[in-house]
Amino acid sequence: EAKAATFSVLGMTCSACAGSVEKAVKRLPGIREAVVDVLNNKAQVLFYPTFVNEETIRETIEDVGFEATLIE
Ligand code: 9UX
């Protein structure tokens, strides 16, 4: 069963930033969907917990260069 997570993502200033976060998250195993909203500084991710978890997704967003926090 897929699980949803929402992250606060700070530091994105353009839609290309959001695109690079989406691309990086979607490259992880076990991701069903990733939507990044630059205007609201949020990333919503649907994932399969057998393959990936919230912390790995959070660290992946940080690796792209943005401060990420799990909010729900
Ligand atoms: Mo967005 Mo461009 O922050 O280098 S500004 S990708």
Automatic annotation (TrEMBL):
Entry superkingdom: Eukaryota
Limits of the HMA domain: 3-69
Location in or out of the cell: Membrane
Family: Belongs to the cation transport ATPase (P-type) (TC 3.A.3) family. Type IB subfamily.
Name of this protein: P-type Cu(+) transporter
Source organism: Castanea mollissima (Chinese chestnut)
